[in-house]
Amino acid sequence: MTMGWSRSKKTALDLLHDDGVDVLAVGKINDIFSGHGIDKGWRNMSNMDGMDHVDEAMREDFTGLCFVNLVDFDAMYGHRRDAQGDGEALMAFDERLGLVMETMHDDDLLLITADHGNDPTYKGTDHTREFVPILAYSPSMSHPGTSLGVRAMASDMGATILDNFGVSGNGNGTSFLEAIS
Q1: N or C, which terminus of the chain has less Cβ within 10 Å?
Q2: 155, 163 in Cβ contact below 8 A?
Q3: The Metalloenzyme domain covers which part of the protein (predicted)?
Q4: Helix or strand or coil: residue 140?
Q5: What pLDDT tens digit does each residue of the chain (181 aa) get?
Q6: Which strand (E) or helix (H) includes residue 163?
Q7: Is residue 179 in some structural domain?
């Protein structure tokens, strides 16, 4: 019996790609998805290098998803329990995020989350169990500050991304696009 990911099941990235939606990958996304459903990717040397790639992607003329992983938050600060470094990295990211938000088009959607908790003040080096927030922003939002509540599963992000591009889903997750539009 084989456990885990099945090649016969398409991910949200595959579904977007198959529907002609560009999929750009920043950081280790290409490795995580073994290149499936990805049109172009950049490897990162650091969070700020990743944000440089985000800036590059935003200068490109594309309609699609730019999926970003900034691994320093996890590998350099969370697992190493470096609260000071994590705080400084968050402030540097926040500064760069302001530039991203200024560059966004009215129909762009920004979703920020993490794949797990990793409290840098907790003992040990394992992932931690706190809830992970989802932040959503679009210049065209009519209801900013809307609470999404506690989502049932991480695949709600994928369902929302597919819904945003009008691509049929794979049956996993529930879109929250209507709540943030």
Answers
A1: N
A2: no
A3: 42-168
A4: coil
A5: 344 444 458 999 999 999 999 999 999 999 999 999 999 999 999 999 999 999 999 999 889 999 999 988 777 766 667 788 888 989 999 999 999 999 999 999 999 998 777 777 778 777 777 788 899 999 999 878 889 988 988 899 999 999 999 999 988 999 999 999 8
A6: helix 155-164
A7: no
Contact 129, 122 (CB under 8 A): no
Here the tokens at position 105 are: 């088009």
**Residue 25 forms beta bridges with which residues?**
41, 67
Question: What are phi and psi for residue 53, nearest 5 degrees?
Answer: -70, -35
Write phi, then psi, for 69 (nearest 5 degrees). -125, 120
* 55 domain-assigned: yes
Report if residue 150 sits inside a domain: no
Q: What is the pTM of this model?
A: 0.87
CATH number at residue 82: 3.40.720.10
